[in-house]
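Kindly inspect this one:
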Amino acid sequence: MADPQPIADAAAREAALDPRRSFIVQAPAGSGKTELLVQRYVRLLGTVEKPEEVVAITFTIKAAAEMRSRVLSQLENPGDIGHRLRIQTIDAFCASLTRQMPVVSGFGAQPGIVEDAHDHYHDAALRTVNELTPAAARLLLHLDNNIEVAANLIATMLAKRDQWLRKTGLAPTRAQLELALRSERARILARARALHPKASPDFAAAALTDKCTWRVRANPVPLAQQTEPLRAALEAILRMPDERYTDDQWEVLGAILELLPRAAAHLKLVFAERGETDFTEVAQGAVARARHAGEPDRPAARARHPPPPCLSR
């Protein structure tokens, strides 16, 4: 019987098991990434005094359960330490951090976690709009005084608040947003020019129709080069955002950005009233706990780090 063919990346797989070093593993499905992670986890267990010191984090409960099963199958004493293995989802890991320091994380007693918090977002958004601040008035004027549409708009943003509260707890400025617009335009143009060196807004308009199909006549792109990837890249150029907002656009967007921090504060009140929270709030609490790692979880210890302003009721 012929010897099995050696794995081409066997050396890299063995190197990834070195507990003294960190690695990022990128490979297609079915190539053995999970098995490699299991082997590294088992090897790490042999270097620590307590199994709780090694943490494996996955996206789904199913993946965590599968990995736990594989790890237990490779341990000599699975019955003794199985319940102490920290193989959990991102959400479960964040929740464990907030429980360790309830004052710093801002939770106190652990609230119930709801998977669909749309009603909470809508309640907080409606309270924000009904305050009728100048920013709320500007938004309502733009929306023909439709309070429900305004509330739904803000509620949608609250569901994604981890994307705009991640840095300073404030909504982004006009300069930051316009920088993002320019960066996106540059990315789209670079991708198109990698496929055709003359790619530009004028070039794309000359090559594609209003429906973004190839023009039949006077097309600057020869028929042999009219590929789908190039067409899609040129279409992206035609649809890319402008570099700057107009003053009218910014007046409305600025009003929304002014309302978002108030809406986030109202959401905290809604969560507190109902004794519930969502995964994003748990993750933010975990980040707060990580920032103060090593500090005692006491109100006095927080005097050096005062909490952000909140709404009074």
The chain is about 55% helix and 5% strand.
